[in-house]
């Protein structure tokens, strides 16, 4: 089972490191990366300051394993990496990192989109938006 | 014993993250109905997982000792 | 006119730096990144060791400006960045980096795909594959 | 004067990156035909740009002093 959950925001250095690790794989010709960044939305005049993520981790890990297997069936990919934050991620911080690599570019965009949508709809992760005034509301995915 | 876990909005509403309940030969729908009324979750939207799998047909489900039930509000990762 | 051409491979640190620069933009919720990596293809038993890129830079810059403008018309995006290597890029090195950011994720995948295809088909950049034995052949895009 | 630029495979085949030619009231197609035969480029596939724009209808094109012609083999960036 691959490690998916990271405490807090995912740093640009972590992403650079993941990219660098693929430079020795000479069959890869195309990478596609999706990053979700916490937006400073305003709701009724209050600005989102951070999102607090929790998860049913054991179930999430099982589901993510299934999603990864299904993606390898569906698309011609060399590698798939999925990372998601737990705990607090401030506005501007990256909370999801999906990284797909393949010999050729054709399918990487669709594969990334499919994976991101699967994570959003099928994996038990829960985000709570924390406002400047310390009020909060549970995030709803659209 | 059945272990019950609550997540996100539901954990907050129930004011509880997890608890154990005796099964006493109850079906899944009976246990859910007990817990929903005890924690006043009737107005909330949630799915139920048993042993980490979503159960879509709650009425047919038979529980065994050691099963883990989870109350899952809408997912909002990403 | 934004700077597109970089000498040699595009480093993971350069990519991390570009990501970090967007973390202060709180209207952004989604990034999509395409990276093209030089593949160690074998052609008639000879392995590609690097690609040597040249360009008609003045025309390429004009064309890239048009492509960027067209993408802003076509898709709901906050930022677009396109970088391409000139000179020698060894196998495993990154030679194209397309970076799209938007408030929401919906269009980012398609926008990235469109931009990459535009760069490949409309921009006067020429790649020459250099083999281990110092022979070479001009790259043909598929 | 017209400045002529050659790129990629075409520069290699012509053994030339750029040169100046006198226009002498020639049309674009005349100049191209002269250069193609002088550099033996007849077997190669290329597009022509004048002042950084691809010219699709070569026969209609009138050149002016100071124009820049480019011989562009198939693009293969990325």
Automatic annotation (TrEMBL), chains A, C:
GO molecular function terms listed in the Swiss-Prot or TrEMBL record: molybdopterin synthase activity
Catalysed reactions, as listed in the record: 2 [molybdopterin-synthase sulfur-carrier protein]-C-terminal-Gly-aminoethanethioate + cyclic pyranopterin phosphate + H2O = molybdopterin + 2 [molybdopterin-synthase sulfur-carrier protein]-C-terminal Gly-Gly + 2 H(+)
Entry EC no(s): 2.8.1.12
Coiled-coil region list: none
Listed InterPro entries: MoaE_sf (IPR036563), Mopterin_biosynth_MoaE (IPR003448)
Domain of life (superkingdom): Bacteria
UniProt pathway: Cofactor biosynthesis; molybdopterin biosynthesis
Biological processes annotated in GO: Mo-molybdopterin cofactor biosynthetic process
UniProt keyword annotations, A-Z: Molybdenum cofactor biosynthesis, Transferase
PANTHER family associated with the record: MOLYBDOPTERIN SYNTHASE RELATED
Assembly and oligomerization: Heterotetramer of 2 MoaD subunits and 2 MoaE subunits. Also stable as homodimer. The enzyme changes between these two forms during catalysis.
Family: Belongs to the MoaE family.
Descriptive protein name: Molybdopterin synthase catalytic subunit
Organism of provenance: Algoriphagus iocasae
Automatic annotation (TrEMBL), chains B, D:
Superkingdom, taxonomy of origin: Bacteria
UniProt-listed Pfam families: ThiS
Protein name, as recorded: Molybdopterin synthase sulfur carrier subunit
Organism field: Algoriphagus iocasae
